[in-house]
Structures are given as C-alpha cells and as structure tokens.
C-alpha cells in the first residue's frame, strides 16, 4: 500500500487480490523498478523513481534515516577454480553414472535387453535339419538362417546404439543451461557421455554374442563378432548423440529413428542386391556409393566374410579354393564369353557392317583382353594396339584366338594342380581326424551351406556380365580380389586393396566404420546439426517476414 500510494497507483489501498485473497510480492518490485517510456513509446532503461528518490521519500515520510550504510569489508578469497578437462570428464562421468544407477528400470532394460534379444534371435533361428541317424539333431552346416541372423544382429546393434544415446543430451539441457555460468568444457561433457555409451555398448555386444552364438552354435568367432557389433553400436551411439544434441523434442527424436534405420537395412546389400537398385545408383562392378555410406554394409560384410573365411574348416582350404575359383572362372566363363564376342566380330566384318562399329568392338575386345591379362601373372599381358578396321584380317583374329587359347590352357593346368593340392590337404585332414564320421562332424560344426551360397552367388544365373565394354565377374565374389586400388570393392570381397597393400575385409571394414564414427564425433563437437536446423529456421522466418 505504501509503494502504490507514493507512485499514485489506482486503488492504492488494496493490498491483496479481491477474488482469491492472494498477495503478489512481485508487484512491489514492479513498482520500484518501473521504467520511463521514451518518445517512441518503448520502455527505456531509466527508472521512473531512482533509489535516491525512494530513500528521500522514506526519510521525509517517517522523519528518520534508514540508517548508516554498512561498512565495506574485504571479500574472502575465491577458492573456486574451473577443474581441468580430464577432471571435468570424471565429474560428468561420475554424476551421470550415479544418476543412471538410481533409475532401476533403466539399468534393468539396459543390462537385459541385449541378452534377451540374443535368446530370441538364437532360439527362433536355430533350424533343426536333422541327420539320417537322428532326425531331431541340430547341424550348423544345414542351418539356413545364418545370413538372416547376421543381418538382424547388425540391425539390433544399430537400434540399441541409437535408443540408449538419443535422449542423453536433450534430457540434460536444463542442467547444462543452469551450469552455463560456470564456463565448463562442453567437450568434457560430451566425452563423458561417449565413454558411458561405449561402455554400455561393449557390455551389450559381449552379452549378445556370448548368448546368441552359444545358442546358434557359432564356434570360434567370439572376438570378431564382438568387435564388429561393438563398432557398429559405437557408430549408432554417436549418431544418437548428434540427434539428441540437435533436436528439441524427444518425440521428434523417436520419429526420426526409423528414418535413420530403414536406409541402413535397405542399402546394406542383402535384401536388395546392389545391381538391382535404381539405375541411377547401380554399380555392377563395385558397391555403389550409397552402399558405402551405410555402416550396416560394412558391418554385415565383415561378419559374413569373417564367418566364411576364418571358420576352422574353410580356413584350411580358402587359399586353394580361391586358386580353383579364379582358374575356373577364366576357362569356364570368361574365355568362352570372349570367344563368342570374337565370333560376333568376325561375322560383322564378313557382312561388311558399319566400319566404325566394328572398330569400336575391336577396341573393346582389346581392352577386355588387356584387363584379363592382369589376372594371370604367368603369361604376358595382351597388348592392345587398336588396329584400324582396314587392317582387320585373319592374322588379327588368329592372334586374339591364340591368346585366348593360351589363357585357357594355363587356367586348366592351374585348376588341375590346385585340385590335386586340395585333395592332398583333404586327405591329410581326414587322417588327422581319424575317420570319415569325425571329418563330417568337423565340417558340419564350422561350415554353413547357406552362407556359402550367399558369398559365392551360387543362385545367380549370370556368371559374367558385360557393361560399358567391360567384362564384370559375378562368379564367386568371395574368391575374387578387388579391381580397385583405392579401397573400393565388390560385396563380399575377401580383401581390400590400398595401393599395393592388401587388407583383410574385417579389419578394413572396422576401420571404415570408425572413420564414420570420427565424422559423427566431429559433427557432435561442432554441434553441426543444431546449427543447420537453426540456420534453416532463421531462413524460413526471414522469408516469411
């Protein structure tokens, strides 16, 4: 009432709400700090009544002074200092762990989700094919669900990695805002989150592999499966942290998750073959760029190739099988296909067709022969001199045919030698195991026919495809070395090539996923997604204005 009276407010004697009887103490501050309105009708920063005027008014009204001002005293020393970056990481880490421990539901779901999914995946995909002696027996070699189990394992850890991380930053936004005046390191905060997410992913992937592989009876692949799935989950963790930092709503985040997962499933190369995609994306020789952008492609290929190459049975025969496959491809598919093309070229010349077309076909044939020569180090490469059509004659045809015969003969000899060597290794293994029954049990325990069919394209009709004047091999890709020396390759390539260095597919693919993790980390540190969203919203507001 005092302040309302002195500031000439209407109804100055009313000190409470007439309806509810409540008193609003903020009104006192509003009266004291009321601002002067300038000539533009906007509030200025100058008070209508200064503190000195309020003081003089009080003295004149009550006839006494407020009192002497307090004596100035020396402020105590400020012992607070910002902790070092590592110390901040440990503080954030400890605080987050303690917060999570108090949430029993979160702990139970986090610890039990992966093992339960492993039980579901392993149990329901464990197909019992039986044997002649025991129709109810489980034979790993005959389980047709292994490729599906590998694909679903990758999808599971993309999903788990996203779900455990996608709320981590957005739920702390109020705390971060409250502590902003402390000038703490955002990097330390993010590092603590990443450490926690990676630790959870390490446990989840280990528990999943231990239980799932035990039920499915996958032998000797514990470390490689764990490493691949853990790496996949780490990528998903960083992706989830990015969307958590960039978006403002939890609902929006969970609406976005399917849009992040579906491309990973679609472009991994399993459900839809890369050479069956839309023509603008298709690459017949290598994995298309859209596939290389997907972590699921690298993870699934790593699992499939490692399971096939490094199981204890195929590990013994892989090198010799690769020799046989490459030689068979030459003599059974590539050379006959080139001979057909050569016959077509001869017919076109004899019919006196368009000379330019004949010349183009002759040059294409020369390039194909030159490329084929690189696959056979034992014979000199074919030298493509691109003769003119007017020089075309029997000598040119005879030269090409002679080269094809030479390649065919060499490939046949290599096949015979390799098969003899395989028979020798096979016989030695049989003697080591002691009996045919033990040999069959050993093979059934480690080899899987469904995976073999997948990585060798056994169900594909075309073994060689001609595209843009090139012969592209589709026969048994697991035994085919990449044609690129910059790391690109076809799906299920046994190795990747960087210059003259060959790198195993599993290790190369893991490094590729970690490179994507690095990109996600740099985006997170730069808060790139939030900046892009803010920029786009600002542009919309500007256009709307």
Descriptive overview:
With about 550 residues, the chain is mostly helical. It has 19 helices and six strands. The strands form three sheets. The protein has a two-stranded antiparallel sheet with strand order 1-2. It has a two-stranded antiparallel sheet with strand order 3-4. α13 runs antiparallel to α14. The longest helix has about 40 residues. It is elongated. The two termini are about 45 Å apart. About 0% of the residues have low confidence.
Radius of gyration: 37 Å
Mean pLDDT: 87
Q: For the report, how would you describe the main beta sheet?
A: 2 strands, antiparallel
Give the overall shape. elongated
Q: What is the helix/strand order?
A: HHEEHHHHHHHHHHHHHHHEEEEHH
Number of helices: 19
What amount of the residues lies in strands? under 5%
Subunit organisation of the chains: single chain
Number of strands: 6
Strand order of the largest sheet: 1-2
What structural class results from the helix and strand content?
A: mainly alpha
Q: How many angstroms does the end-to-end distance come to?
A: 45 Å
Low-pLDDT runs of 5+ residues are 386-390
Helix content: 55-70%
């Amino acid at each position: 009432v005092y302040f309302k009276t002195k500031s000439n407010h209407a109804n100055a004697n009313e000190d409470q709400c007439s309806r509810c009887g409540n008193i609003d103490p903020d009104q006192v501050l509003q009266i004291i700090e009321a601002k002067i309105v300038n000539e533009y009708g906007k509030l200025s920063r100058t008070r209508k009544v200064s503190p000195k005027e309020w003081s003089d008014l009080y003295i004149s009204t009550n006839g006494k002074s407020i009192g002497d001002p307090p004596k100035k005293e020396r402020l105590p020393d400020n012992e607070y200092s910002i902790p070092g970056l590592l110390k901040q990481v440990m503080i954030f880490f400890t605080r987050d762990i303690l917060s999570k421990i108090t949430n029993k539901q979160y702990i139970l779901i986090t610890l039990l989700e992966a093992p339960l999914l492993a039980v579901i995946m392993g149990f329901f995909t464990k197909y019992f094919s039986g044997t002649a002696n025991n129709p109810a027996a489980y034979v790993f070699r005959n389980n047709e669900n292994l490729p599906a189990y590998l694909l679903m394992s990758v999808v599971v850890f993309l999903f788990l990695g996203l779900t455990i991380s996608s709320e981590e930053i957005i739920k702390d936004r109020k705390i971060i805002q409250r502590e902003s005046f402390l000038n703490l390191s955002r990097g330390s905060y993010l590092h603590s989150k990443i450490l926690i997410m990676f630790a959870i992913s390490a446990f989840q992937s280990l528990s999943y592999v231990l239980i799932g592989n035990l039920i499915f009876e996958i032998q000797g692949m514990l470390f490689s499966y764990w490493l691949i799935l853990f790496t996949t989950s780490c990528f998903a963790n960083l992706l989830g942290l990015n969307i958590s930092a960039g978006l403002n709503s939890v609902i929006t985040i969970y609406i976005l998750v399917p849009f992040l997962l579906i491309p990973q499933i679609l472009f991994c190369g399993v459900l839809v073959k890369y050479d069956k995609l839309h023509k603008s994306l298709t690459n017949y020789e290598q994995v298309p760029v859209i596939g290389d952008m997907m972590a699921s492609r690298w993870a699934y290929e790593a699992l499939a190739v490692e399971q096939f190459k490094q199981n204890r049975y195929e590990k013994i025969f892989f090198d010799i099988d690769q020799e046989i496959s490459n030689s068979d491809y030459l003599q059974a598919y590539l050379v006959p296909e080139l001979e057909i093309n050569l016959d077509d070229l001869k017919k076109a010349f004899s019919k006196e067709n368009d000379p330019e077309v004949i010349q183009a076909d002759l040059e294409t044939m020369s390039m194909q022969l030159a490329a084929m020569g690189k696959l056979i180090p034992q014979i000199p490469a074919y030298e493509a001199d691109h003769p003119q059509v007017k020089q075309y004659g029997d000598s040119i045809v005879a030269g090409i045919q002679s080269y094809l015969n030479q390649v065919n003969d060499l490939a046949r000899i290599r096949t015979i030698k390799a098969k003899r060597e395989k028979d020798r290794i096979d016989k030695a293994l049989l003697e080591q195991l002691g009996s045919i029954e033990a040999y069959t049990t050993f093979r059934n325990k480690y080899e899987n026919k469904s995976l073999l069919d997948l990585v060798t394209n056994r169900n594909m009709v075309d073994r060689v495809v001609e595209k843009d004047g090139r012969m592209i091999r589709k026969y048994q890709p697991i035994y085919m070395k990449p044609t690129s020396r910059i790391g690109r390759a076809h799906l299920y390539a046994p190795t990747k090539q960087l210059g003259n260095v060959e790198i195993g597919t599993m290790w190369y693919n893991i490094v590729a996923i970690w490179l994507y993790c690095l990109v996600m980390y740099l985006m997170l540190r730069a808060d790139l997604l939030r900046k892009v969203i803010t920029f786009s919203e600002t542009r919309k507001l500007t256009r709307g204005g």
